[in-house]
């Protein structure tokens, strides 16, 4: 397997170099991007086809024999979504220090999951979270609230990914948004329909290689170009200092700076301390129980394998996360050097990318002097004359394009642009694949098999499951086409919902024997509902944010709304549990066993093999 | 099945350490970021460097340490004897 990965990585790099050479010879840009997409798409499909399976355990949990390193890579690929790949760098620019809340929460959740949640679920032998809930609370329908939480948080995330797919594919391949969504969908089904989780695992490994190369290679190149040393994560400190000096000069010359990057290293720009910490807390709890991640950790070889998988996935994720701020620093530096202080006529010669991106279809991405930079004439009119000198406030660039446009901004060859686009598509596909298989497992395994048709033979279960997979993908695509969502908002929603719905019940269910069925269900439902209500009321119907005197005057931010739901969930779960009779003896024995990593798993996908 | 007290207590201790570090590194440290920004480190303002990179690398080390320490502990006390998933 290691040899296959190294060969794939080498093949990818050779492919980039060959295309780079061909580009110098002069083949058209369009051909480069299409052959790139073809290379990536073919390789994912082949991996998916080779991993086809007719076994249920392989379809749902990859046969529980994925080695830790590859599980780590697959987890990282499934964790690094299109939104992170495309938007994280820009977020450090637009939200400044607040971006740190997101990356801290998204990684801190792994610390919670490795200690509190994943090993116990792996020892239990669950295939999905609902398997555990069902056995732990000893009621056939106890898994249902878990499925509802899973469906809401996974579907919101899935729609965010599909929207991102439409945007990236339409921008780079010139497809219609609608067509792009359906092509993306077909790609996802091609990879995962035949092999289920097994195929998803190995395509995700390939996708991680693509997305990591695509994310790191350009910024390493730029770091070498700007600072002379190819280690962007540590070199951008100097660049930040240069930016601070430039901004200081601008302020002294009484030029107004909107935001400014130097300010971004100081905390408290848009979120106050309470909301900053609350957002970290919500994202951590959401990450710790995010169904898609839990599913990945259940595919490892053993409880110890789960722990090793989590450490590897942390490593692979953090490499990407710490690179994001470097992108934003290098780009801001280039903007100050190459754009600010130039006259409009110089821009036309030196920075044609402004007009290229300004004239892209859809919402305005680049605006100069308050007008959309679609052509020179408009800009000249808005600025007054061709001699107008661009000041920092004249220029506004949508931070969402930072990563996608980096090759244009730094005058790198087009092959880098194509590489980044393919990386973004790989990031989107891997996350979407993970989400689709998670939803499929919940519906096919828990709802269809365990609730509706417990005697279904393997063959019928596989057929029904694949059918469900197709239906889910089509529904997700249709919703995306009807209402393409605001991506960051959907992402924040889905973490709050996952955290509020699943975190209290899993933590107490695993660690507190006294948790009763009534307690768990009431706590889960109330925590989830109050979060959902707060999200919908503040996010869609414009309700005022709840303020807490002396702690936050700003009000609890919509994206941190699980800060209400999680404590409520814990509280109700504990109180109701105390007032109901304790769980039966067999559950208590199971609870002792669940923390002992040795021996056989307690169940096999919820089917008991060992009777206490 | 006998409960191995040493294993049990050490496991809980490790867990407690993990959660304490998580609370300090994930939440507590942010109260000091603004103050630490006056110190320079590798060209960065120290507070910003810790918040944007230090914490994350810290989490990686923490998780790796926990995984290997807890796995070793399980091995030492033979908790993992005969581990492995049931295959169909």
In words, what does this structure look like?
The complex is a heterodimer of chains A (612) and B (88). Chain A is an all-alpha fold. Chain A is 71% helix and 2% strand. Chain A is built from 24 helices and five strands. Chain A has helices at 2-25, 29-50, 56-61, 68-79, 82-94, 99-124, 129-136, 144-173, 177-192, 196-227, 232-252, 273-289, 291-297, 303-338, 344-350, 352-358, 376-383, 406-409, 414-452, 458-482, 487-511, 517-539, 562-579, 585-593, and strands at 366-368, 371-372, 395-397, 603-604, 607-608. In chain A, the strands form two sheets. A three-stranded antiparallel beta sheet of chain A has the order 2-1-3, with helices on one face. In chain A, strand 1 (366-368) and strand 2 form a beta hairpin. In chain A, 57% of the residues are buried. The mean pLDDT of chain A is 86. In chain B, a hairpin with a 2-residue loop joins strand 1 (40-41) and strand 2 (44-45). Chain B is elongated, with a radius of gyration of 19 Å. Chain B has a domain at 5-10 and 27-76. Chain B has three helices and two strands, in the order ααββα. The relative contact order of chain B is 0.13. Residues 81-88 of chain B have low confidence and may be disordered. Chain B is mainly α. Chain B has helices at residues 5-26, 33-36, 46-76; strands spanning 40-41, 44-45. At the A-B interface, helix 6, helix 11, helix 12 and helix 14 of A face helix 1, strand 2 and helix 3 of B.
């Amino acid at each position: 397997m290691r040899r296959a990965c190294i060969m794939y990585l080498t093949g990818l790099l050779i492919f980039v170099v060959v295309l780079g050479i061909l580009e110098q010879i002069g083949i058209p840009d369009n051909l480069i991007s299409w052959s790139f997409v073809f290379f990536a798409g073919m390789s994912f499909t082949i991996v998916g086809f080779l991993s086809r399976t007719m076994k249920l355990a392989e379809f749902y949990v990859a046969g529980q024999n994925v080695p830790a390193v590859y599980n780590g890579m697959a987890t990282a690929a499934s964790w690094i979504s299109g939104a992170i790949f495309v938007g994280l760098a820009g977020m450090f620019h637009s939200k400044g220090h607040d971006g740190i809340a997101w990356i801290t929460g998204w990684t801190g959740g792994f610390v919670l999951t490795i200690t509190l949640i994943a090993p116990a679920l792996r020892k239990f032998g669950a295939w999905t979270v609902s398997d555990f809930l069902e056995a732990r609370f000893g009621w056939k329908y106890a898994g249902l609230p878990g499925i509802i939480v899973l469906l809401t948080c996974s579907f919101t995330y899935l729609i965010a990914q599909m929207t991102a797919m439409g945007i990236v594919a339409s921008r780079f391949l010139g497809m219609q948004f609608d067509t792009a969504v359906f092509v993306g969908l077909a790609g996802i089904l091609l990879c995962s329909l035949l092999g289920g989780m097994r195929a998803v695992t190995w395509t995700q490994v390939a996708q991680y290689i693509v997305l990591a190369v695509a994310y790191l290679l350009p910024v390493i190149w730029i770091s070498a170009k700007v600072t002379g040393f190819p280690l962007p994560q540590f070199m951008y400190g100097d660049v930040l200092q240069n930016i601070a000096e430039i901004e200081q000069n601008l302020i002294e010359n009484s030029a107004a700076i909107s935001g400014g990057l130097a300010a971004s290293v100081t905390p408290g720009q848009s979120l106050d301390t309470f909301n900053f910490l609350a957002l970290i807390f919500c994202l951590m709890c959401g990450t710790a129980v995010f169904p898609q991640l839990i599913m990945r950790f259940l595919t490892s070889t053993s409880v110890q394998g789960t722990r090793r998988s989590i450490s590897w996935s942390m490593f692979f994720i953090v490499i990407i996360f710490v690179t994001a701020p470097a992108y934003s620093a290098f780009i801001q530096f280039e903007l100050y050097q190459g754009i600010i202080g130039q006259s409009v006529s110089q821009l036309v010669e030196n920075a044609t990318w402004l007009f290229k991106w300004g004239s892209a279809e859809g919402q305005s991405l680049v605006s100069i002097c308050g007008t959309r930079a679609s052509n020179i004439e408009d800009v000249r009119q808005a600025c007054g004359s061709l001699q107008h000198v661009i000041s920092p406030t004249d220029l506004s660039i949508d931070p969402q394009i930072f990563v996608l446009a980096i090759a244009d901004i730094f005058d790198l060859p087009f092959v880098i642009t194509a590489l980044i686009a393919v990386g973004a598509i790989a990031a989107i596909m891997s996350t979407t694949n993970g989400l689709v298989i998670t939803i499929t497992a919940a519906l096919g395994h828990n709802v269809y098999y365990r609730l509706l048709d417990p005697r279904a033979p393997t063959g019928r279960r596989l057929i029904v499951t694949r059918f469900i997979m197709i239906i889910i993908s089509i529904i997700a695509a249709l919703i995306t086409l009807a209402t393409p969502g605001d991506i960051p908002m959907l992402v924040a929603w889905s973490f709050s919902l996952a955290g509020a719905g699943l975190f209290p019940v899993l933590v107490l269910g695993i660690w507190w024997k006294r948790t009763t069925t009534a307690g768990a269900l009431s706590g889960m439902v109330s925590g989830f509902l109050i979060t959902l209500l707060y999200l919908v009321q503040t996010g869609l119907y414009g309700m005022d944010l709840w303020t807490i005197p002396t702690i936050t005057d700003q009000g609890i931010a919509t994206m941190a709304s699980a800060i209400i739901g999680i404590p409520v969930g814990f509280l109700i779960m504990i109180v109701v549990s105390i007032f109901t009779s304790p769980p039966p003896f067999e559950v208590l024995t199971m609870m002792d066993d669940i923390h002992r990593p040795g021996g056989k798993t307690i169940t096999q996908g919820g089917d008991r093999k060992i009777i206490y | 099945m006998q409960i191995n007290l040493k294993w049990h207590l050490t496991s809980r201790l490790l867990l407690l350490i993990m959660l304490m570090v998580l609370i300090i590194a994930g939440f507590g440290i942010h109260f000091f970021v603004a103050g630490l920004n006056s110190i320079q480190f590798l060209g960065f303002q120290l507070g910003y460097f810790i918040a944007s990179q230090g914490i994350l690398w810290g989490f990686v080390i923490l998780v790796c340490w926990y995984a290997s320490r807890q796995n070793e502990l399980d091995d030492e006390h033979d908790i993992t004897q005969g581990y492995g998933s049931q295959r169909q």
